[in-house]
C-alpha cells in the first residue's frame, strides 16, 4: 500500500501543481486531486496537501514537496 497524497484543485491552481507533477511521477506514492477538500481558509493562505489524511503545508512548491517526502519518511504506513 502506497502513501496517499490528496490535493485540492484550487490549491493546485495557486501553485501546488509543481508538487503534484513531481509526486504523480513517483510510483511509490498515490496522488489524487479533488474539486475541494474543505480546507478553504488554509487553501487561500498556503500550499498544502493531505498526506495519509494529515495536513502538510508550505509556502513554496519546493518546500511542499520536501515536507511531503519528509512526512512520508517519518510516518510509515506499516
UniProtKB/TrEMBL annotation:
Pfam families: DUF1450
UniProt-listed InterPro entries: DUF1450
Name of the featured protein: Uncharacterized protein
Source species: Ureibacillus sinduriensis BLB-1 = JCM 15800
Organism lineage: Bacteria, Bacillati, Bacillota, Bacilli, Bacillales
